[in-house]
Amino acid sequence: MSDAQDTILESEPTAAIPAPPLPPDLLLVIFIHGFKGTDSTFVQFPQRLQHILSETIPNTVVECIVFPAYETKGDLNEAIVRFADWLTNLTVQREVANGSGGGAGKARIVLCGHSMGGLLAADALLEFVQTRPDSTAPLWPNIVACIAFDTPYLGLHPYVFKNSATQAASYVQSARSAFSAFQSFTSKSTTATTTASAPKAAITAPPMAAQTSAGAWQKWAPAAYAVGGALVAGAAAGTAYWKRDDIGVGYKWTADHMKYVGTLWDEGRLHKRLERLLAIERDMGVLFRTLYTFIPADPPTQPEPRMFIVLPKRGTTLAEHFLEAPNTLAQDEVQAHTGMFGSKTNDGYYELGLVTAQFVRDAVAASKESAGDTGNEGTTAATADEVRMGHPGDSSAHPQTSPQPAHTEEDLML
């Protein structure tokens, strides 16, 4: 071979060996039910959110997982410990299974708590932050957002009790009217029958049975009215009978709710928790948002809008972290609260999903930017934003901002 040929061969570049593809990022969205909730509290909401996020966050494995049902009684701190243990075990398992290089912390985690579940999520986050080896140590599990749905961070709205009791009283009054109508009917029927066949003395005897029934009614209403109404008042009371499960339910639900977390309803501690959550968002970049049910005013019967939770003072930084989740289908605050994740019980269901998806994408994008992870473009406003909250490039949102979905509602139905 000539020297010229040797020179040519030596100058030819060696073909580069392609680097193995990096494993996809991992995003875990954890749903935590609230007081008396179950594994089915969120219905299909987690699956639909997973679909949206998988389609709009590139090169990322997305899992929406519901924390198994837990006892909503006793000490809430016990539930927090159980949840923290469960989450750490889950994170290790998923990070190993995903094969993500870079060690612990590759899995980004979003906590989504409904009602009491929001308190559990917040307190677990605070516990993870507080138990780090030192203030400069990274947060693990790598929680990037804490999103609450109708969580009473500042307590239950006082009108929840008032409106629930009023509704129960209206049901009772309907049943009483039906019962009175039945008494009048049976009294006339009995009188007519007795007139034809009984001696006069029997006709003038005091109606003891009717008096006893009325007395029992007064004594046991509203708890026992349903069965009595259905048995004795025909079709009129039948309507009331079908309302039997609603009698006192709203009031009892809220009373039990308060009882379970009675030790937490200390105003100073409530505000302290929120101050710490805002500080963690500011110093560590963990996004914090609360979506609360909002029933618009309906004059004249409901001249004011209704909420399940107490809201922060308007114009404060904290208030900017609370956003309306309107629901015009719910009859009262408890129905709006418990039906938040049903498309048939909440006409704001699709908007709720889109707003939640945007919060998650904002948190993931901020986490990647903070970590200097620019390998993936993450979520881009031009192609992935179904919802625009605030100004471009600004993840903060105003409570009254109405998101404008670029995708159709069918995105959440797939």
Features of the shown structure:
15 helices, 48% helix, 2 domains, 414 residues, globular, disordered C terminus, Rossmann fold, alpha/beta
Average pLDDT for all residues:
73
- Element-level helix/strand string: HEHEHEHEHHHHHHHEEEHHHH
Indicate the percent of residues in helices. Answer: 40-55%
Major pleated sheet: 7 strands, mixed
CATH topology of the largest domain: Rossmann fold
**What's the CATH class label of the largest domain?**
Alpha Beta
Shape: globular
Low-confidence stretches: 168-176, 192-244, 380-414
Please characterize this protein's 3D structure.
This protein has 414 residues and is of the alpha/beta class. It folds into two domains: 25-155 and 265-413, Rossmann fold, CATH 3.40.50; 165-254, no CATH class. Helices cover 48% and strands 11% of the residues. The protein has 15 helices and seven strands. Strands 1, 2, 3, 4, 5, 6 and 7 form a seven-stranded mixed β-sheet that branches. Strand 1, helix 2 (45-56) and strand 2 form a beta-alpha-beta unit. Helix 2 (45-56) crosses helix 13 (349-371). The longest helix has 40 residues, at 158-197. Residues 367-414 are annotated as: Disordered. Belongs to the putative lipase ROG1 family. Residues 28-159 form the DUF676 domain. It holds the Pfam family DUF676.
